[in-house]
Amino acid sequence: MPARGVIDRDGFRLSWVREGSGIPLLVVGSHRFYARYFPRELRAHFDILFCDSRQWVPTPAGFDLSTLTIKTFADDIEAARQVTGLDNPIVLGQSQHGAIAFEYARFYGDRIRGVGGVAAVPPAQEGLEPPADFFRRDASPERLVAHERNLATRPVPTRVTTGREFAEEYVANDAMNYYDLSVNSAPLWEGVDLNLEVVYQLFGPEGLGGFRLEPLEVPAFLGLGRFDYGVPHYLWDEPRKRLLNLTFKLYQKSGHHPPYEQPDEFTADLYDWAKRL
Fold this sequence. Notes:
Number of helices: 10
Number of strands: 8
Order of helices and strands: EEEHEHEHEHHHHHEEHH
Oligomer: single chain
Radius of gyration: 18 Å
Helix content: 25-40%
Strand content: 15-25%
Shape: globular
């Protein structure tokens, strides 16, 4: 049976689950979502700690969300590493959690053997094509039709004010986020509730709004999807030059979710990289 526990951080109850054996690996984000999302085969190679971050749990009564900074999220990862006794791990995150993982490595790079970002949110940049324009220019006619069909047949909230509405909008946009046009990602979101107020603070100026990616010597793995229309791969062309010890892979049959869409290839790539650290 996997080990489980809860870490209290300022009243935020961060649940974790630990599975597999091998190279220690800490996955940032929802322990429910990402335990489903990452390939089962990873458990044969890695001792994996899936741990919540604050945007996946309720805010404690009276907590001042304006006090949250990117350092808060990095400190939470370090607390989880210490509480669970995960020694010298790789820290890995997808999407917003990839950016958090890179920031963690900036503060705590001496505690880990490597850091990974999958379809990671990139640093803010000026003068680049917006993702929506990239989608209209690059997507095939079949993809554009699939996107319109999803918008017509799946729940689409008029305003996103709750975690459930965020998930509905996300699922409605599957044709922008997955290479496979038949995907319905709703099962991944079952029992998962995003804390939007924390997300808004995370993307503010004290969080990822200020993410600039300082030059980083920690060994890094960056995996992007060729058909990711939420985080287009070209947004990392310049920032990844600041990852000074980088292994990079552009997955040709993936959107925003290479571990989910190309699980065997992703598992082999991550393990081959990890073995060399």
